[in-house]
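Supplementary notes for students who missed Thursday's class. We covered one full example, reproduced here. Read the sequence, then the structure, then the short commentary at the end.
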Amino acid sequence: MADELYADAQLAALYDRLYPGATDFGFYLPLVMAAECVLDVGCGTGALLHAARTRGHAGRLCGLDPADAMLAQARARGDIDWIRGDLASAGWVEEFDLVVMTGHVFQVFVADSALRAALAAVRRVLTPHGRFAFETRNPAARAWESWQASAPIEVEGPGGERIRLTREVLAPFDGRSVTFMETFSSPKWRQPRVSRSTLRFLDAVQLGQFLTDAGFTIEAQFGGFEREALTPASAEIVTIARPAR
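Structure (token representation):
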């Protein structure tokens, strides 16, 4: 789910280079391939659904994202449904066998009310036997401490220009969320582009309570995309949930 920065067509075109998704495809792609009807919430450039179709998925694939510029990239494939919008505007009822949120989209729902509304919408669009797969960073791993210290990410733009991404934590973890800034710059640009974001961090117990309250049962949880065991020190909380019966 791209923020308003990715209404910028130039940055949307660079998204997959700046944030490569190959690390989680090994987990999500088999789930997509095994489901007949799939909704990717916050699909961005559509890379996951593109990969599924390329590998022969013959069922319904639908990507949902609020950013036109990101969907312009996704629409390179016309055999997938691309919808501009968000979960709040989704009118589907029991239509999808699988809903996925990749790229830590789950963490953009910062307020309790927003998270509850998102989970209720996922519950509504899933079939009774459907599955909801997503990941959220484990707060115990304190990922934000590495963001500022990490080396800048540099990629080559479409015109051969070098584009640099740096991160700065503006408000560290307060027991609930982290606010940070990303700065995109290039010697060929008149000025940098700047994005400010806030992400919610839930531990496994808090997450489980939100899912239970929304009518879900946890089918499986992992500490990473290789399906490793979830431990207190795991970097990720990767979850597959089902509607409770």
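Commentary. The first helix runs from residue 9 to 18. The mean pLDDT is 92. If anything here is unclear, bring it to office hours.
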